[in-house]
Known about the structure:
The chain is an all-alpha fold. It contains two helices and no strands. The longest helix is centred in the first third of the chain and has 27 residues. The model has no long low-confidence stretch (mean pLDDT 75).
Amino acid sequence: MCQPQINHVASPHDEIKELRNCVAELTKQVAALSTSTSRRPRSRSGQRAYESRRRSHSHGRSRDVSTSGVCWYHRTFRENATKCRAPCSYKGNDNSSH
């Protein structure tokens, strides 16, 4: 990392030259960081891998039966549910599956 030397006998010209060198070095470091982050793999949706790792909100009891007595499958798919979990009080078009 660039740290300019504080020297009381240095001329202003030397100080400016040293600061320019530090700026040039920092510019190279920023460019290298920008390049390395743009090379990270992206998923098909365009998100970076770490952005798509989020916890699912459907775990535990919510997948079985809610407080309304209707299973997760019927809450999600209604009459198209094919994996109903008992006990389920869904009253859809076809009651023969309960």
